[in-house]
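dude i think i finally got it to work??
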Amino acid sequence: MRRQAPWTGCLTIGSRRGLVRPLDPGIQSCYNRRMNSDWEEFRERPATGQRKTTPSVSILRSGKMGLNRAAFDLLGRPGAIVFAYDRARCAIGLRAATLGEPGAYTVNQRGSWSSWRVSGAAFLRRFSIEVGDKPSSLDARLEGDFLVIDLPGGETS
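look at this
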């Protein structure tokens, strides 16, 4: 029985543990399992599992906001936050709050990941803040009690 192994450019002959031979004589790694020493590394983008160490907030199309560990730590690792908006600067502010505080939204950790989520859909609708189709990760900084996120197109201070 001959079939092409879908994950390689090799031809599998026989059972699952059968003999594997390259379809193209130039493909040696399938036949003799030797590694080529002419690797060219791709370094244009960090790996997906790599942590960002600067504070940032992601705004998803659903209206949820994701805080990375650095942003969550800057706020003092709160159980809830209060949203604020500065129209003149076109900036969102997040302030640490207690769970019973009026207007406070609960912050939830996303599984065992180093990110935390809060639902900001009502806040975004109230201030007519447009969210694109793709998630946007925006840098954040601490100003007084607020973690400030400058929105694209607004003035930064």
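Helices lie at 29-32, 69-74, 121-126.
im so relieved honestly
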